Amino acid sequence: VCVLNRCVNEKEARILLKKIRAYTMFVLDSVELNGWTKWIYESRIGKIYSLNELQEFMSDDIKLFFPSGYGEKFDALSLSISQNFGGSISWDGYNGVLLNGEYGDDFYQIAYWRMNVPLFNEQVIDFWLEYEKDPSVNIQLKFEQFQAGSVSTVQNRWVFSEKDLESVISIENKKMDGPIFASLLAKGQGKLRITNLHDRHSRKSYGVFFPGGERYVTSKREELFMYFDPGDMKPPLNVYFSGYKTQEGFEGFYMMRNMGAPFLLISESRLEGGAFYLGDKEYENLIVSGIQDCLKQLGFDRSQLILSGLSMGTFGALYNGCKLRPHAILLGKPLASLGDMANNERISRPGGFPTSLDVLSKNYGDMSLKSIDALNNRFWDLFDQTDWSQTKFIVSYMLEDDYDMTAYNRLISHIDDIGVEIIGKGVHGRHNDDTYSIVAWFKNQYDGILKSDFGRGYLDEE
Questions:
Q1: The pTM is what?
Q2: Residue 462 binned pLDDT confidence (cut-offs 50, 70, 90)
Q3: Helix (H, G, I), strand (E, B), or coil: what is residue 22?
Q4: Is the pLDDT of residue 323 over 50?
Q5: What is the full DSSP assignment across 184-249?
Q6: Is the N-terminal amide bond of 236 cis, ω within 30° of 0?
């Protein structure tokens, strides 16, 4: 955290730009915002505090600016169903478990998560439950905190209603360290799908995962996360889609920040490690509008936009690139035909990436050849309708990729626009065999396009 109690000159402002994260600057209201002070305030998205407000912040909230964020999920595979439940139970991979039957006239435990959540003194944890249900079913989420080392001494108990569950629920521990046990109570009758229980180290109102991290949620309780840093507020805006990751949070922060330019990190945590940024119209619109909002805030247009990603993130960059038509799309280990990726799980890559089957099932309800083709065409139909005449493609790919074997060649063959610049580099190996070479080339190409197309040097050179 940085506190400014006076104006700064250009040299000081540029040092602060490199040393301070966005959303961590606090300026006393006695400081006049003009010149370079205003520039660094806008770049770091500062807040103005009075001296009293600052003292309250330092005593109450400074602890929420811990170094790195953490988030995880308890998926359906870690869920146990009550032996007293007599209805039907069907498991659908990481899409969740579906219950259908009678739950009783009063709230009884219907399911519980087998792993506990550690909770330390003075710590705050946010929880979010992904579920769907019939209106005839009512649920409650119950947490019990045991004393550390005990299996019977309960020191805290929290019960949250459906009304509470409409927003993120927070638990703050004012007592001793001890693990939290989570269970789901239900009453009524009908269908209840339990997907994931997410828990994250809370920063309260200061952001999700990072200070300034934004969380968006759809009417189906599906989440999307964005982190925007204005950098030096000069073009371009670099957008990076996180790859597949089981620990929740943002990816690529230091890589993007070291470029010095404005950047936007996009992440999601559905299924096991991400659902490839595919969803209903409401979900997909969140991504496009989020990028457009950042462009508008900076005063940029799409010719000053770069979309990028690695592995799962490449699909996010390509799919949304069809809608945004950016200046350039940078990809490492591209995945485009998600239906084929799921089909490869049967023979070409058995047991290698079962999440691909969840993506297919989540979007089309089964794993038939018809659904495989539909998932492939969902992307390629959109890609073929897009005018790529103003977009560069920079792609590093695995020559023996076992996830999507045809991605690079199909991308080239489907680009019909005259004069499109395509730079490609193949690396021998399967999808996960040589990530180091892919990332190194990816970063070099990023630096090159920033220099050649936007006249930018490295941050330390400016």
A1: 0.94
A2: very low
A3: coil
A4: yes
A5: EEEEEEEEEEEEEEEEEE--GGG-SSSTT-EEEE-TT--EEEEEEE-TTS-S-EEEEE----SSBS
A6: yes
